[in-house]
Amino acid sequence: IHDTPITSKSARDEADVLRAVERVHAMIDQEISAGTRPEDVFIFGLSQGGTTCSSLLCSTPTSSRTL
User: Whole-prediction pTM value?
Assistant: First the structure.
């Protein structure tokens, strides 16, 4: 978040969201490499985390996720 309150004129930085998604993908990959079963990975977020979660799901192949 670059400024508050957030309004329709607030900056939108898609690059920041994509970087956050990449970090979450890396954390998931690390957990799976450490032995966590992919079906045991649960992604959840509220507010900005919800945006990250939604972007993550949209960028993950359907075969890699359970909906």
Answer: 0.66
